[in-house]
């Protein structure tokens, strides 16, 4: 019983030590980026561009909402002027500009997300040799 506990503790310590060494081996920040001015400048530029893409995505979303609100307001004003008694539906199809703005917001937000993924590679690069597979014959 006591030997089983000791054996489990030894296995746990060995596993923790191997895991620590494995992740430290691929710590890109400590081994390279922290000391490389070119990589630090590239990381700063990526982070700036990431913030810019998120801001532009927010602006595109706001623009799309404004375009849609204006279209509904114009539709309501036109109905009020002509006094036709038509009901302005809240389920009206938004104008084409709304869809372009919404698509732009989506694309810029996706670009910001991808830049975030890219910036993570300057800190830690996760790699496992078990994932290497040779497909087909190399010769």
Topology overview:
Elements: H1 2-25, H2 28-33, H3 37-82, H4 96-120
Helix pairs in contact: 3-4
Polypeptide structure, described:
The model has no long low-confidence stretch (mean pLDDT 79). This protein is an all-alpha fold and 139 residues long. It has helices at residues 2-25, 28-33, 37-82, 96-120. Helix content is 73%, strand content 0%. It is elongated and about 90 Å long. Helix 3 packs antiparallel against helix 4. The chain is built from four helices and no strands. It has a domain at 40-124.
Helical residue percent band:
over 70%
Globally, the shape reads elongated
Derived structural class: mainly alpha
- Average pLDDT figure: 79
Radius of gyration: 28 Å
Low-confidence stretches: none
Q: Count the beta strands.
A: 0
Tell me the number of helical segments per DSSP (H or I, 4 or more residues long).
4
Gist of the model:
The chain is mainly alpha-helical and 139 residues long. The chain has helices at residues 2-25, 28-33, 37-82, 96-120.
Keywords:
73% helix, mainly alpha, 139 residues
């Amino acid at each position: 019983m006591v030997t089983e506990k000791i054996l489990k503790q030894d296995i746990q310590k060995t596993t923790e030590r191997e895991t620590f060494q494995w992740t430290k081996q691929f710590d890109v920040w400590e081994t390279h980026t922290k000391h490389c001015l070119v990589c630090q400048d590239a990381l700063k530029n990526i982070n700036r561009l990431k913030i810019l893409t998120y801001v532009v995505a927010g602006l595109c979303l706001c623009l799309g909402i404004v375009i849609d609100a204006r279209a509904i307001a114009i539709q309501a004003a036109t109905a009020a002027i002509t006094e036709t008694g038509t009901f302005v539906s809240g389920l009206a199809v938004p104008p084409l500009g709304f869809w372009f703005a919404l698509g732009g917001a989506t694309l810029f937000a996706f670009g910001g997300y991808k830049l975030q993924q890219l910036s993570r590679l300057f800190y830690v690069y996760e790699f496992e040799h078990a994932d290497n597979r040779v497909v087909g014959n190399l010769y």
